[in-house]
Design brief:
binds ligand 9MR; alpha+beta; 4-stranded antiparallel β-sheet; disordered N terminus; 5-stranded mixed β-sheet; binds ligand G3I; single chain
Length: about 600
């Protein structure tokens, strides 16, 4: 594919191309023009558009012109407040360009710009307490916007108010899912829950890591979440908003278990993706499809963790913790009897697969959560049998969630040796990611292979691991790299985009998200993380405009056709909530 010349106006460019370019070209084309270079040697100063906390280690990335000095100036009067040297730029493979990290150290509260001779000044950024509190709120509120089965009223949803869709009270058991207890033609009810992403289906496997991450955010940073009011219908009750929101999906998940045998359906879905319409206009018949090992174990893990977390709020959710414990144990039992049922898409079902072939990680995660809930040795032995060295988590790789839960609750472990081993395992992964960042010209852990479908969530899941490493070891460097990862997502990237809708100076405007596409409101539903650059570009055949680049970190298209680079998804927003809250909670006040 030939990259378009971004510095030259196109003849009659399509609207979407102009908008894609407004984002990508502001920092690439305009800055390149200012520097007198061609678009292929883009130069610029890349910085977190939401700014920084006063106690943070501030960094920016400078690409391009070989300069070896920078200065920080006050935004108000342009007076220098800091002068620093830049290391020699070295290659950063994901964008195939040379880069150098400008280390600003700490700055007192204020508004600043970074200047480098020969380059356009950076965006103005603030150093202020609470820099990411609004981000954490918006990222959590995004889940509310994806609630199935309820209207969003103007008092809580503002411009994005909408009617209810997908009641899911009359759902057919798909032929792939029939069992003696629920023969062909059985109708079940499984209302509520969140739409997975830009589509309107509900997938248990993807709810797994999502729920874990949100509940872990509560477990790790209760002080941050306890006081926050994000404007939910439930706000002001006795429960933190985060747990009110998570409850919406837990209720749905509970109905995805077949009460006759404990097995859990893989998904609740249409046969085909809905058209690009608002939820209430999407009326296709819905099915629960095929039980599976991954869904059952992810469900068991989530229910065990939730039983633990919601126990403190039993008065508000009477009976729920016991019900969730029982559900978790039954799903675990089903998986013992069906240890290898991979999801295979039935021939007539064409929606998201979330297929996974390997279940040791799901067994390890569920065993860890069930051990922490019940204290029963058998679960710990199961964890030992199935656990492998931690890796960066994703919907298909959940073993590390078990390691992190055990580390979080290490005082419950029966012996010192295991305690040490669990801490060392999580710590080693965090240390490895921090070392990758130190060796990187961009100062982040992301490698070319990390630019997968949902790469922005990969960056944030790396950050989540780094925050665990920081909490366990106290190493400041791990916190600083987690910050750098968040910086990357919020603008310190070669596209110059803050990838969260409504959060930053240049943000995605055309996410692949049916409500955002169909609601007639110019601005997309706020608080959603765009999936991010993905060089495999699996949607190219569905897109009327080409990606501007095939390079890993540049393969992003702000067009609503681009489900492979610009969709939103619950499992991608969850680590955004975690990391935004975690950096707020863990960065020392200065
Ligand atoms: O498993 C292979 C791995 O072995 C290989 O090394 C790697 C190379 O890139 O690819 C891996 O498979 C990838 C798989 O995700 C697991 O990570 C596929 O290439 C990739 O196409 C696949 O993408 C998934 C995508 O659905 C397509 O199935 C995304 O992870 C997943 O987030 C996305 O989820 C969709 C739902 O299906 C439907 N709802 C929206 C949601 C977000 O786009
Ligand atoms: O909208 C769908 C999105 O949620 C999925 O992630 C994506 C990949 O499974 O598929 C999208 O639907 C597209 C379909 O796969 C191909 N035809 C165009 C659809 C989007 O408009």
């Amino acid at each position: 594919m030939t990259a378009p010349d971004l510095t030259r106006p196109l003849a009659a460019p399509p609207r979407a191309m102009i908008l894609a370019c407004v984002l990508a070209c502001v920092s690439i084309g305009a800055v390149a023009a200012a520097a007198g270079t061609s678009a292929s040697a883009q130069a610029g100063i890349h910085v977190n558009q939401l700014g920084f906390l006063p106690g943070a280690r501030l960094q920016a990335v400078v690409t391009g012109n070989g300069a070896r000095a920078f200065r920080v100036v006050a935004a108000s009067d342009g007076q220098p407040v800091l002068r620093g040297t830049l290391p020699a730029a070295t290659p950063w493979a994901p964008a195939s360009r040379d880069a150098a990290v400008a280390d600003l150290g700490r700055l007192p509260p204020g508004r600043y710009r970074i200047e480098v001779d020969g380059l356009a000044p950076s965006d103005t950024f603030a150093v202020a307490p609470g820099a990411y509190a609004g981000l954490a709120d918006a990222a959590l509120k995004a889940f509310y916007f994806n609630r199935a089965g309820m209207p969003l009223d103007p008092a809580h949803a503002g411009r994005w108010a909408r009617a209810a869709g997908h009641p899911d009270t009359e759902v057919e058991v798909h032929p792939s899912a029939v069992s003696p207890g629920r023969p062909a033609g059985t109708m079940v009810s499984a209302p509520f829950g969140w739409y997975d992403a830009g589509d309107y289906n509900k997938y248990v496997v993807n709810s797994g890591i999502t729920m874990h991450t949100l509940l872990a955010a509560w477990e790790d940073f209760p002080g941050f979440f306890r006081g926050r009011d994000i404007g939910l219908p439930e706000s002001g009750d006795a429960v933190p908003d985060l747990l009110d929101e998570a409850w919406w999906n837990l209720r749905w998940m509970l109905d995805m278990q077949d009460p006759h045998d404990g097995g859990v359906y893989h998904k609740l879905t249409n046969l085909r993706f809905d058209a690009t319409v608002m939820p209430e206009a999407a009326r296709a018949r819905r099915y629960v499809v095929r039980k599976g090992t991954a869904a059952s174990l992810d469900f068991a893990a989530v229910m065990a963790q939730a039983a633990r977390v919601y126990a403190r709020f039993e008065a508000h959710f009477p009976g729920a913790p016991a019900r969730m414990r029982e559900a978790a144990e039954q799903a675990w039992e089903w998986a013992q009897a069906h240890p290898d049922v991979a999801y295979v898409q039935p021939a007539d079902v064409h929606t998201g697969a979330y297929g996974d072939q390997a279940f040791d990680d799901e067994f390890a995660w569920a065993a860890a959560e069930l051990y922490l809930l019940t204290g029963e040795d058998a679960y710990l032995r199961a964890f030992e049998r199935h656990a492998r060295a931690p890796d960066v988590p994703s919907w298909a790789r959940v073993g590390t969630l078990g390691w992190m839960s055990l580390a979080r609750h290490r005082m419950q472990l029966p012996d010192e040796a295991l305690h040490t081993r669990v801490v060392a395992a999580v710590d080693a992964l965090s240390a490895r990611l921090a070392a990758q960042a130190r060796a990187s010209a961009w100062g982040i852990a992301m490698q070319p292979a990390d630019f997968v479908w949902g790469s922005n969530a990969q960056a944030l899941n790396q950050a989540m691991v780094l925050l665990q490493g920081h909490r366990l070891s106290g190493r400041r460097g791990d916190l600083d790299v987690a910050q750098a990862q968040l910086d990357y997502v919020l603008g310190r990237n070669p596209l110059g985009v803050s990838f969260v809708t409504g959060q930053g100076l240049r943000t995605p405007m055309h996410v692949h998200h049916r409500p955002s596409q169909a609601d007639g409101v110019d601005a997309p539903v706020p608080g959603w993380l765009s999936g991010g650059p993905n060089p495999r570009q699996q949607d190219a055949g569905d897109c009327p405009v080409p990606y501007a680049s095939a390079l890993p970190a540049l393969s992003w298209l702000d067009h609503d056709c681009s489900y492979a680079s610009n969709e939103v998804a619950i499992n991608w927003n969850a680590p955004l909530v975690y990391v935004a809250a975690g950096i707020e909670a863990l960065t020392p006040e200065e």
